[in-house]
Amino acid sequence: MIDDFDDALALANGPGRAGAAAEGPAGEAAGAPAPGPRRPTGRAAHETPGWEAARATAYRAARPLPPRRLPLDLALGHTLAAPLTALTDLPAFDTAAMDGWAVAGPGPWRLTGGQVLAGGPAAVPLTDGEAVPIATGARTPEGTTAVLRSEDGKVAEGQLHGPGMQPGANVRPRGQECRTGAELLPARTPLTPAALGLAAAAGYDQLTVRPRPRAEVLVLGDELLFRGLPQEGRIRDALGPMTAPWLAALGAQPLVTRRLGDDAEALREAIATSRADLIVTTGSTARGPVDHLRAILAELGAELLIGGVAVRPGHPMLLAELPGGVPLIGLPGNPLAAVSALLTLAEPLLCGLADRPAPAERHARLTSAVRGHPTDTRLVPVSCRELGEASPVTYAGPAMLRGIAAACALAVIPPGGAEAGAAVAVLGLPAT
Fold first, then answer.
1. Among candidate residues 2, 427, 402, 408, the one with its CA nearest the CA of residue 238
2. What predicted TM-score, i.e. pTM, was given to this entire model?
3. Of 41, 141, 149, 252, which sees the most CB atoms within 10 A?
4. Residue 320 is assigned to a structural domain of this protein
5. Residue 414 sits in the same domain as residue 332
């Protein structure tokens, strides 16, 4: 799950989104996969969509990545491209649910000698009045009517004594969990550690998946320092260290973070030669003297799908599609504005690339009134101290990270603001 705020949302509408750690490129095919059909966006790029419309456009604009087969140890965080069906009954045979004795008929029972261990050979069949020691998970001998727990039995003079038991007691019958061919998980399910364990138990060595979209981050701006203290009018780069991990938490596989300054030719070359499924830039989304991104996208023949969003902070964010079908998201340079763009555009786009359902909407009640923008949606960092409640945090200006570093979600404040007690949508933040 992507954040610990999930447990505190009493009004949550649907399951949380699964976060996944970044993994290396082992097992991945080189080069960008051939693009599939894009979902129609239904909106002209020159319009400035509202926040909800922008998220819907980003989701519809994604071309789902082609499926590929991966071994189980490389499938974590990817998405099932087809339903997971059982290749065997689970369990595949009757097994002991705990340590004790496999018994046949009513007691007392005479011990036959030997013992039955998990993974061991088939035991000699039992007849009425017989018992044999058995370990948890071991296949029960033919003729077994129940398993007597070790703490309930007592052996005296070669006989086992214990209470009477119903037939089948402490036995996991064959097919108790599922029968061969049963659907265990539907297509479009994110592969969590538990899902991989289920796939292994069901007999799989490989899975057909929609891969995690590979993302490349391009950090722009000559004013940025990458080590040491701010000095001589230059500031530390805050977006480079956080953007790739944030994309990973949203379901991407970050490939590289490049620092390009305000070099227009370097930016053009980086975009034109990228082999990622998604390019994310930081800064240069406005129209200042060294903001080259929009001009370069036009030179490259990119289609501008979203040129700005009616949201604060982050309204200059953009979404474009390059001629080869690869999407590019432009994050504004202010930190909180960049986070706003990640959750507004990158989250739904990554869901679309992986062919997952659009992000589920969640709600919480505000503990205090929040001032709104007259016409635009506001995204406000909030903490959660009580179940289902969201409290705005301080230090939440567009250029600040202090507030969001202490927050667990962004509250979606509609134009005009929201009163205390109002239920508002919330966007969970990565916890790791």
1. 402
2. 0.82
3. 252
4. yes
5. no
